[in-house]
Specification:
By secondary structure, this protein is mainly alpha-helical. The chain contains twelve helices and no strands. The longest helix has 62 residues. It is extended, with a radius of gyration of 30 Å.
Amino acid sequence: MDLNKENMKKMRELIVFTIILLIALWNYKLLFEWIGFAFGIIMPFLIGGGIAFVLNVPMSFFEEKLFGNKRMKEKKLAKRLARPLSLVLTITVLIGVVVLVMFVVIPELAQTVLSLGKTIQAFVPEAQRFLEELFTNNSEIRAWLDNLNVDLDKLLDGAIGFFRNGAGSVLNSTVYAIGSIVNGVTTFVIAFVFACYILLQKEKLCVQVKKVMHAFLKEKWENRFLKVCTLTAKTFSNFLAGQCLEALILGSMFFVVMSVLNMPYALLVGVLVAFTALIPIFGAFIGCVVGAFLILMVNPLQALFFVILFLVLQQIEGNLIYPKVVGNSVGLPSIWVLAAVTIGGSLMGVVGMLIFIPLVSVVYTLFRENVYKRLELKRGSDHAGQ
């Protein structure tokens, strides 16, 4: 290898990189602490970016439908107010949905809790009567209880010590919980404000990012990076919009059918199924289990009918509605959807299930394009060799 200036520069960069890597591996604990500290600082901005991405889907819809026609675009005032009004309308709609769900679900949930309380009150005397009969008529159990040597003073001292030592722990836990709540609220406020700034100036931010990439990256890598970002944004937006619409349709189906069949908790179960259906594949089954338990407390036979109804509606939704509503928006085969949900749920819980489907879809699309490109190149070389 010629020791020219270019090669010497590459060798120096390689040596410096190796030294930095060795230092980082030697002090990996300190490195992780720095990474955690930096991640904690940028966390509000990462959350704000996620909020901005989610709000951008309905905001773009309102902006296109209300201000996207030719007559509106020609008016300077309408063009200037299109983005802020669309953002305000999006936030208003989201707040309205949350308030509506709270006013609808909370009274229903309170009624459910009261009903469960009455059921438990009726169950406790029956269980008590059964235990009394069991212990009265069973001489072996009575003899075993009589032979137990229980030191009541020792138990009392232990209980007093537990409460005495536990008071400080409860106080510390309360202080920690209050601090966590204040920290969480502060983080959310900062993230939400940052998201609003992103949404109001997203075109300007895109231009600035493109300028930075054009200044520091080669044209080949710049085009590739922009292609991946565009594909990712499109896939995530289509998945989010389709999943929300599909969950709304499924929850409405449960509410209507259960109301027609005069089944209890129709509204509560419909809202519950709609929210849990946002979790791909497994979400609706969570709603089924909870709904079946609630109905079981009222009427066991109707709980069985509810499970059968769930299976029927789930088949209709999975075979007819989901392909039409969501369609091939993510462009991912069913087996990879299941793999993405499983891996995402194992790594990040429910959030991972929602993120990994479009993320795996992007990787799958890019890998498929690369495979087809290589096959065409190989086919062309084979024809040239012939």
